[in-house]
Amino acid sequence: MMMTVITQNSLMQATGRRKTATATVVLNQGKGEIKINGKDLEFYFPTFVHRYEVLKPLEVIEATKKFDIVGKARGGGLMGQAQAMKLAIARALIKYDPSYRSLLKKEGLLTRDPRMKERKKTGRPGARKRFQFSKR
Predict the structure, then answer these.
(1) Order of all β-strands in the sheet with 39-40
(2) Residue 58, C-beta contacts closer than 8 angstroms, at least 6 positions apart
(3) pLDDT at position 94
(4) Whole-structure pTM value
(5) Neighbouring residues of 119: CB distance < 8 A, sequence distance ≥ 6
(6) Is 113 within 8 Å of 23 (Cβ atoms)?
(7) pLDDT class for 10, splitting at 50, 70, 90?
(8) Cα-Cα-Cα-Cα dihedral of 60, 101, 11, 86, to 10°?
């Protein structure tokens, strides 16, 4: 008699966005290696602030050396990409284990930041800037 064993799929994929940046993440059980656009985390995000943003969801659940992450980041600047990666990693962790949701939610890591750049209006030099007013 053959028995089939259903195991939890350790390969989780999620997407995160911030401003005009988009990040896609594939989360897998491993040793803690993080690659973004084919580069190591330290080379892609050279400053500590950006790396801290990306690693925050893993630090909250105390699993920095438990998962391997392969990510793709497009658009925006480095900070927008780092925050998009943060959201993508948090969403992937919830798919992996739904019990992480309360910890990540409490830290505010599951909320997509809705702030975007305001569009430039016609007849104006910028979104809110006005040309100099001349009374005469």
Answers:
(1) 12-18, 21-29, 67-74, 34-36, 39-40
(2) 64, 66, 67, 89, 93
(3) 94
(4) 0.86
(5) 127
(6) no
(7) low
(8) -50
